[in-house]
Amino acid sequence: MDKRAVPLGSVVSPVVVAFLWEGAVAAGLLRPAYLPPPSRLVPHLVRLLAGGDLWSHMAVTMERLGMSFALAVLPAVALGLCLGMWRGLRLALEPILTSLYAIPKIALLPLIMLVLGVGERALIFTATLTGFLQMTVSTMGGVLGVERTVLEAGRNYGATGWRLFRYVLLPSALPEIFTGMRIGLGLTLVLVIAVELTAAQVGLGAFLWTAGQTLSVQNLFAGFVVIGALGLILTYGLERLGDRLMPWRERGRDGFFV
Description:
Keywords: Cell membrane, Membrane, Transmembrane, Transmembrane helix, Transport. By secondary structure, the protein is an all-alpha fold.
């Protein structure tokens, strides 16, 4: 079986949910004014995409997401590796990271705006901070999770210094690093939408805000569908990249029970 094929359950389950939703509206269990059925939402979404307005909001959100993730990933991975390898640095910085991790980043937006001003820099920095902290913590955990026997085996084969890092430590921590990147990408998207809801005029978050203020339920659901689709595509894309870089990881991806 081709591992790149889409599992049947991943296709069937959304279709089943759509049919149940449509049936519940038809039976009067759900009010179409608040939960319009898929038979209405799909044509409305097609019209929005054909009109081009939704594409412009999507493009702005994707630009912000790309900048935020790009600014976060390299510093986060580098810092996480350093924290995992050097105990003194970890003891010094871990309390700060843990404290910042617990604070909702959207709550920092007013402070960030005071420092950076009202504009794109504040929005992007707020979204960047979320992904940065998640990827830093995950990378550090990946390094700390490398078994000592693996490191000792590498040393016994002559791997020391850079060679030990390059051929033993980094490959062993890489699955956890990619897990952190995948979660960090999703959280960054969430924060981009949140800051757009709060302090932006364009973007999918601003589109949702306008739809809510004008009581346009179909626009709201269209925005939800687009955001969910973006999250799904980006997450699976990053996961496939991880599969290419770490082919050994695929062996355990089906879980214990098939």
